[in-house]
């Protein structure tokens, strides 16, 4: 049986017949007419002269949904199959297909679309319309294309129940499933809005989702951002003071020193929507999640797809991007080190440069400033160096890192990642100084104003203080849970715990955001090394830096005492009380400590538990896991493993974030594995590790970077604000002038 359409559409309501009905009602019942007209106008203004065009595979419910949407809006309803094609051809669609064959059918179908025009209507396309480029370009000119995204397994089930075994474009020997998968590329090319449709969702609910999605598409003003240090009730409501996604990407830090957060919070997915992503690939999940977090007025879906493809393409060594590996018992590793610089930072920093280049105005040059405790540096240098040449001419990046506070391989990697628009500067201090210095530079309006006026250059941030850094990290926490469901480890809805080695609080905050968006995460376990200020804070509510000095450890990426992204979380649990957040952080700045109210601490402890790991226990965990499994943990993952062993209650699976590849910390790994210590250069250390045939293998990207000549060349600066600003000015002069 060949499928034409599951439902017959309603009678086509023309503009003339609609006007006639309204005229009769107005003359006979003026009060009733006023009520109907008000309702119709509020709905119809959603569309105006634009068409709402429903697109999707056969069996997606386009005709039924279109009919309901048209009823709700009081708009004409047009089904391309029944009202255009069969009228034009004077024969059924199935007869036409038999008459001309697949290829000619698609061409004839496209020609019919090119001759069609309508306005202010709800239009249901055929499943094959999107395969004709010229026809779709014609439709898109006066329409908002809504993609009804239904999982392939659901479509197959529906088509099977309808006894459909063949669709347009299907060749002999090609399965129905294969052609449905093939068509997805065309659907993704054309849509403006995606509506996720699970297996059990009713057509009425789909129609409401379509209307909500169209409202969102047409009203970007609802998706504004505020500072963690501003009050919702007291902020200015002037339009010119509102901040949108593009603004916060460009500006990084709020003018008052706070961090930007979405004013109305993050979007929430239903259980059905998450379940529709169980079979999806990592990049498909990323596309869906990020579309809901970034308004299409800031980045259209098609452009976002380009960025995702560039970020997670051949530069990742694993096709699964962020695979979940069983470790032992109920412990699973989320491997986040398959990117080009071998750490979780690649997930954001392979994408953020593309987002940044798209969002910034073309009239100004930008210098991106970054502070790193280790992994961010190479990731940001690599990411921004991959931009197109035209973008590299107007965007440069300067990375400040503690000269003696990162591993030898991390330093060699950062220096090796330097390119014509990307530089690494070692600072004779620790990470906290580097991060504080950048914040002070951003809030120094005299200095930033001078750079803009004198050199036409603005400053921007790529640390996790930038909101765009956090969004791609939400994706991998959600994806890890969906992978466990897909593997049959848990049914959807069963909880998991996550354990994350944490310093600046960005990674664990992203897990908390995933939980808010509907992923069933029970507890987020914060794992600290001997710089355990966060562990103490989560246990007591007291954030106390008095008398604390940073301790260099084997896990330098979490050698942090001032956790920037904690501010976003405190703003969240304080229900947006910017005045309280301002008070806490002023107290931290001036008195080096603050204490949470009891009610806020109770809220925090509903989400978070914490523990810390000594250096000895870290090395012992690496040795133990290798001895029993053959798998090598990096030092940060080992910190998380130790804390997970102590704090998990074993009533549900626990996902441990493996945030970096062990290759980056070869001396510590060699020591943990009790291999005789060697005084060799980083490249020799990696070759030695590789000789043990470890699991996973030594990271190829690190090997390639360390093989480059000239890895010793980089600038070194004293811990002095004046000197840092001088370095910035010199770079601007050399690159942009």
Automatic annotation (TrEMBL):
InterPro entries: P-loop_NTPase, Ser/Thr_deHydtase_PyrdxlP-BS, Shikimate/glucono_kinase, Shikimate_kinase/TSH1, Thr_synth_N, Thr_synth_N_sf, Thr_synthase-like, TrpB-like_PALP_sf. Its cofactor is pyridoxal 5'-phosphate. Belongs to the threonine synthase family. This is THNS1 protein. Pathway: Amino-acid biosynthesis. Residues 239-312 form the Threonine synthase N-terminal domain. One of its GO terms (biological process) is amino acid biosynthetic process. The gene is Thnsl1. Keywords: Amino-acid biosynthesis, Pyridoxal phosphate. GO terms for molecular function: pyridoxal phosphate binding. The modification N6-(pyridoxal phosphate)lysine is found at residue 345. NCBIfam families: thrC (TIGR00260). GO terms for cellular component: cytoplasm.
């Amino acid at each position: 049986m060949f499928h034409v359409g599951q439902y017959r559409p309603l009678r086509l309501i023309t503009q003339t017949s609609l006007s006639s009905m309204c005229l009769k009602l107005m003359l006979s019942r003026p009060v009733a007419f006023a009520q109907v007209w008000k309702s119709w106008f509020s709905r119809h203004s959603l569309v105006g002269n634009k068409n709402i065009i429903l697109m999707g595979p056969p069996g997606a419910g386009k005709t039924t949904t279109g009919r309901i949407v048209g009823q709700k809006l009081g708009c004409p309803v047009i089904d391309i199959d029944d009202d255009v094609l069969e009228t034009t051809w004077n024969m059924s669609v199935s007869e036409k297909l038999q008459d001309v064959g697949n290829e000619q059918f698609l061409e004839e179908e496209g020609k019919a679309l090119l001759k069609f025009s309508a306005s202010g209507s709800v239009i249901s396309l055929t499943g094959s319309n999107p395969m004709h480029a010229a026809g779709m370009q014609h439709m898109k000119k006066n329409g908002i294309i809504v993609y009804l995204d239904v999982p392939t397994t659901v479509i197959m089930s529906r088509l099977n129940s309808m006894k459909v075994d063949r669709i347009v474009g299907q060749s002999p020997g090609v399965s129905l499933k294969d052609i449905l998968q093939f068509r997805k590329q065309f659907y993704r090319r054309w849509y403006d809005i995606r509506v996720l449709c699970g297996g059990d969702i009713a057509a009425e609910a789909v129609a409401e989702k379509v209307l909500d999605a169209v409202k969102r598409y047409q009203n970007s003003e609802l998706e504004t951002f505020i500072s963690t240090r501003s009050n919702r009730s007291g902020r200015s409501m002037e339009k010119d003071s509102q901040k949108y996604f593009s603004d916060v990407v460009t500006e990084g830090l709020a003018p008052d020193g706070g961090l930007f957060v979405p004013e109305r919070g993050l979007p929430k997915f239903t259980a059905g929507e998450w379940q529709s992503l169980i079979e999806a690939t990592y990049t498909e999940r990323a596309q869906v999640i990020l579309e809901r977090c970034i308004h299409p007025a800031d980045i259209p879906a098609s452009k976002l797809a380009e960025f995702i493809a560039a970020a997670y393409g051949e530069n990742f060594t694993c096709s699964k991007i962020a695979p979940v590996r069983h470790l032992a018992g109920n412990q699973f590793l989320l491997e986040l080190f398959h990117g080009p610089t071998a750490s979780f930072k690649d997930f954001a920093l392979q994408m953020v440069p593309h987002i940044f280049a798209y969002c910034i105005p073309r009239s100004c040059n930008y210098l991106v400033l970054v502070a790193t405790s280790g992994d961010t540096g190479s990731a940001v240098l690599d990411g921004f160096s991959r931009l197109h040449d035209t973008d590299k001419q107007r965007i440069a990046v300067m990375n400040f890192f503690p000269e003696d506070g990162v591993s030898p391989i991390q330093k060699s990697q950062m220096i090796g990642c330097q390119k014509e628009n990307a530089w690494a500067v070692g600072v004779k201090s620790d990470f906290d100084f580097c991060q504080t210095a950048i914040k002070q530079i951003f809030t120094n309006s005299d200095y930033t104003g001078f750079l803009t006026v004198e050199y036409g250059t603005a400053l921007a941030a790529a640390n996790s203080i930038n909101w765009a850094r956090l969004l791609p990290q939400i994706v991998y926490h959600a994806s890890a849970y969906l992978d466990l469901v897909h593997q049959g480890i848990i049914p959807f809805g069963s909880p998991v715990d996550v354990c994350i080695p944490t310093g600046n609080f960005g990674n664990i905050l992203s897990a908390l955001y995933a939980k808010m968006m509907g992923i069933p995460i029970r507890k987020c376990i914060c794992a600290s090394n001997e710089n355990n200020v966060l562990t103490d804070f989560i246990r007591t509510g007291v954030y106390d830096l008095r008398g604390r000095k940073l301790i260099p450890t084997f896990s330098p990426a979490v050698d942090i005492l001032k956790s920037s992204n904690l501010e976003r979380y405190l703003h969240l649990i304080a229900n947006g009380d910017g005045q309280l957040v301002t008070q806490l952080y002023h107290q931290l700045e001036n008195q080096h400590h603050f204490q949470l109210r009891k009610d806020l601490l109770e809220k925090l402890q509903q989400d978070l538990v914490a523990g810390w790991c000594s250096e000895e226990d870290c090395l012992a965990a690496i040795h133990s896991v290798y001895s029993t499994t053959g798998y090598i943990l990096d030092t940060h993952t080992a910190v998380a493993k130790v804390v997970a062993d102590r704090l998990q209650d074993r009533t549900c699976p626990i996902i441990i974030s493996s945030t970096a590849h062990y290759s980056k910390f070869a001396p510590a790994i060699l020591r943990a594995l009790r291999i005789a210590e060697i005084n060799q250069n980083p490249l020799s250390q990696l070759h030695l590790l590789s000789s043990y045939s470890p699991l996973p293998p030594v990271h190829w990207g690190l090997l390639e970077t360390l093989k480059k000549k000239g890895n010793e060349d980089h600038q070194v600066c004293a811990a002095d604000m004046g000197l840092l600003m001088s370095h910035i000015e010199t770079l601007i002069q050399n690159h942009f002038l």
